[in-house]
Every structure is written in structure tokens, then in C-alpha cells.
Amino acid sequence: MLRNLCTAVLVAACSVFAPACTLVSASTPASTPASRPAKGCTAITAPPSPSALATSIDTLRQAYFCVLDNYYSGPVMDSRALLKSAFAAYTQDLMRRGADRADLRLPALSGNRGTDWAAFAKVLGLGDSAALHAAITGMVTGLHDNHARWVRPDPSPQGRPAGTGVVGVSAQQGPQLDPAARPPLFITRVLPGSPAAKADVRVGDIIDEVNGMPAFIGDTVNQAIHAAFASDLVRLTLKRPTTGRSRVVQLRAGPATRQPPSVTSRKLTGGVTYVHLPEFHEGVADQVIAKLQDKPRAVILDLRGNGGGSPREVTRLLGAFAHGKITSYFCPLKGDCVPNRTDDSIALLGSRLIVLTDRECASACEDFSAAVKDNGLGTLVGTRTAGAVSGPSTPYLLDDGSVLLLPKVRHLGPAREVIDTIGVPVDHYAPLTALDLATGRDPGLTKALGLL
């Protein structure tokens, strides 16, 4: 669970809630000079090949200037804050490994980007590769931006995922657990045929402990268990909500086949069509519209678990329900915000719309949900969305084959409201519980049908 394939992240980077990226060929392996930028970082549109090159002091230099040159607030950012975050993460990594250095102190910084980097690099020297890895991670984490991250291409054979098969929990929210989550923590998705499925781990099973750590400390989710889920060996203390029986399950990572996300639909009574849309990948708007060609009286669009996708697909799908509407704004650091609008080339369906959302509905999913709510295009049912929609990310290649994802603009809703860190509130609250999952009930869908 929560072990995302870096390759998948990079493939989506130019479409997941992002404007067009600058085209740079990534077909040459990252270990060759042709694909290793000599100066600065380079915008890319496809994931580079996995590289065996170590992260070096030059890689950290690239990342530092890449943030300052390309991040949304980079032009006005205090470079000293970036270097402080990087230095803190670097020294902490050394301390964890018992390799701290007596001469390692952050030099006096003046705020001059070039001068400060020279002083910083002089202290580090050639640097420790593992600690430099931590430094870049710490520097990007210090931006406190949910669409900024540092990733590496997946080195696993043929990109095949391996894990325990637990790929969803109730507090899941991108690279962390939802700080607003309430107990209990329970499993929402299990891959068929995976080690978890073979151990009879089921959706709805309540997680009391992960590797001996409690899922909640008081009423606050324990963020420490996030990393534990990525371990090759995970020990779960589970309780089945239908029986109350507790047991300990030890899961060892193994091959786990993930089916590509696909749009599914079914006809319900009263001229209602239910459509589940797992992500806004390229071409998905046309797939959804094709399932609605009979122009049903009402559409229940299930966006629960939808982690985002292409802004173009958002505007195209919204164009099937309304024309002439502003769907969101992309705002640069300076200058006017640019409005995004419904794609009015799409024929109107004339169907009533109800959208199901949850705390995993993020990025482009929130873009769609806010457009529906602010423009009065339909009704939202479920729970507030994730609040992870800072702005579209552009991927930049570094010299070790790794990639920085950095937003260049900020997202605002149709009413120019900030949705990032806040989320889109629903019109009707209908959370999914552990017992609901275990027994096959769906209060969100039930509520939506009741509204119709």
C-alpha cells in the first residue's frame, strides 16, 4: 500500500492537473550524456530510463537552482530557507547512520543565491550520496506543497509492482495519511491474488496496529505507519467489523498485478446511470460520455478514490453538463489569473448530475468537484475532498536520472476561492464506514438515489 510507482507518477506528470510541458526527448537512457543535462534542470514530457548514477553534490545544486528558477514562488523565495531545509535533512540522515561530522555546520548565508550555494557546497565537499538524497527530499518537503516532489524512475523489472496487496486504507491521502481522519482506520482496497488476498484480508477490516505501532494516537492518525506499509514485511493487527474477531496477519511483499484504471457504469432504475471514474487520465471524458449516449435522466458520477488527472479531461467532461462556465483559475506569482472554461464543443447531455466524493478525491478531481458546486451544475454527496490541489506540476530532469515535480502556477476555484489544503465541502454528508464496506453497503449511493 502507498508504494506508488515512480514511473507512473512521471508518465502522469505532464497530464495530472498540469499544462503542457516543454518537449524534451527522454528516449535516451538517463545514464548517457545526451539525457543528462549539463547545466540546470530540463523540463521533460516522459519518464527517463532508470539510472544507476548516484545522487551527487551537482544533483543537489541542480535541484536548488531548479526550485528557484521554476517553482511558483521561486523568483521571490529566500534561498536561505531552501538551504536550511536541505542541510537539516542532510545532517539528520548522517546522525541516523552514526556518520555525523564534527566540522559540519551551516555556513553564514547572505541571501545571495550564488554566493550562498558556493559556501554551502564548500562545507559539504563531495558529500555523502545517501545524505544528499535526503537533502533533496528535505528541500522539496520544506516547500510544503502537495504537488512538489522528488522521484526516481522505477527500477523494478518491466515496472511490475510488488507489495502486500493492501492498496487502500480509509485515511489514505497521497503521500501521507489524512490528518483529519477519524478512527478507526480500515482497509478499502485489496488486490486480487495478492499476499493480502491470500491471507483473507478483506475490505472493511479494521487496522489496530501496523508493525506494532497503533493506527491512531488518541484521535489523531499515526503518520509513522505510512512508511511501515511500504516495508517488504508488514505485520497487521486486524479486527473484522462483522464479527469483532481480532487476528495478527504477517504479509510479505510479492508480485501483485494492478489492472489499469477503467471507467465502469451500470444502469439503475428510474433512468439513472451510475458511472465510476477512477482518474482523469487522457481520453477518459470521451469514455464517460460514450456511456451516457442515451442521455439518462440523471447521472451519478462516482469520483471516490480519484487521485486526479488531466485538466483538459475535466473541462471536456464538464462541457457535457454545462456551457460557458469558468471551471477554475491558474494564477501566476505575478500578473492576471488565467480562467479555465468548459469545453463547449461537447454536446450537452441534459442530465441531472450527482457527484460522489471522498478524502481521496484530489487534484483534478477537486477541480471538477469545485466546478460542479460553484456553478450549480449538480449535487456533491460523500465527504469533503482532499485539499491537495496547489497547482499543476511540471517535471524536470536532474543529472542522476531523478525528476523534480514543481508547480509553476496556483489553482483557484471558479469563485476564486482557495481549495488547496481545504478541499471542497459536500452538500450531503455520507461517509463510508468499515461495516459498510464489509457488508457491501454504500451510503453515498443510497443518499444519491434518495435525492433523485
Which terms would index this structure?
452 residues; Pdz3 Domain; globular; 2-enoyl-CoA Hydratase, Chain A, domain 1; six-stranded mixed sheet; alpha+beta; disordered N terminus; 12 helices
CATH class of the largest domain: Alpha Beta
Low-confidence stretches: 1-38
Number of helices: 12
CATH architecture of the largest domain: Alpha-Beta Complex
Number of strands: 25
**Beta-strand residue percentage:** 15-25%
Radius of gyration: 23 Å
Mean pLDDT: 89
Question: Which overall shape is indicated by the principal axes computed on the Cα atoms?
Answer: globular
Largest sheet: 6 strands, antiparallel
CATH-defined topology of the largest domain: 2-enoyl-CoA Hydratase, Chain A, domain 1
Task: Count up the domains.
Answer: 3
What percent of the residues sit in helical stretches (DSSP H or I)?
A: 25-40%
- Supply the CATH superfamily name of the largest domain: 2-enoyl-CoA Hydratase, Chain A, domain 1
**Alpha carbon gap, first and last residue:** 36 Å
Question: Which structural category do the helix and sheet elements fall into?
Answer: alpha+beta
